[in-house]
Amino acid sequence: MLQCCSLYMVASCSAVPVTDLLDRASQRSDTLHSLSTTLTKELDSHFPPIGRVITPRPSMCHTSSLQTPNDKAQALQISFVPAMSHFSALFLQEADLLSLVRSLLQAWIDPLVVLSTSANTLPHPAQSSIFNKIQEMQEHSKSLGDGLDILSSKMGPAAQTISFLPYRRGNDIGQDRISKLINFHFLLSCFRRDSHKIDSFLKVLRCRAAKMHPQMC
């Protein structure tokens, strides 16, 4: 638990340079995406064949309405403002990218609770392992979100803007075994896709900050 709080505590310290803050955030997001990838593989090992056919399309993920770059390559194309005399000028466009990251994290607070609750009764041989990893994802997601909240406050109004994407599917992922596995798998696949975006965007921000060595202190 102490480790999961480290990003928030570090971000709260005004003496820490932005490169270090973004490096820690990138490490946290990398762990988050790795967990979601591992979980998806565990579910694939016991996924009903019919699930490949009737699983909802990615466009049905509740975050699909948020316009974001699809990957790191597209994120790198966001226009970059050359460094001026003040740090905020450097992050004029990067603040928008951080806003997207924070919006995605915010959008997954409730769905991660649904995954955690549903994992308790998931009809899967690795149910216990899946439940534990979902718990880890919740902790890492909260820690990352708390740290980025502090970071965004140092980057101006654009970084503090959040697009709210409510999760409207409710807590019930299905009554029968196949429905539970398919809906759980779909929700997790949506999170895996978004965690990949979060990780990619933060790595872009970290690389840009490292080039200029700006300080927030």
Descriptive report:
This protein has a single domain, classed as Growth Hormone, Chain: A. It has helices at residues 6-12, 18-44, 51-54, 72-75, 87-90, 94-107, 109-119, 127-153, 157-160, 177-212. The chain is mainly alpha-helical and 217 residues long. It is elongated. It is built from ten helices and no strands. Helix 2 (18-44) packs antiparallel against helix 10 and helix 6 (94-107) runs antiparallel to helix 8 (127-153). It starts with 5 loop residues before the first helix and ends in a 5-residue tail after the last helix. Mean pLDDT is 80; it is low at 1-14, 79-92 and 213-217.
In terms of structural class, how would the helical and strand content be classed? mainly alpha
Rounded to an integer in angstroms, the radius of gyration calculated over CA atoms is 18 Å
CATH architecture: Up-down Bundle
Count every beta strand, where a strand is a DSSP E run of 2 or more residues.
0
CATH topology: Growth Hormone, Chain: A
Number of domains: 1
Shape: elongated
Distance between the termini: 27 Å
How large a portion of the residues is in β-strands, by DSSP E?
under 5%
Individual helix count: 10
Largest sheet: none
| Overall pLDDT score | 80
Q: Can you tell me the residue ranges where pLDDT is under 50 for at least 5 consecutive residues?
A: 1-14, 79-92, 213-217
Helical percentage? 55-70%
At the first level of CATH, what is the class?
Mainly Alpha
- Series of H and E elements: HHHHHHHHHH
Name its key features.
Prolactin, disordered N terminus, Growth Hormone, Chain: A, mainly alpha, 0% strand, 217 residues, single chain
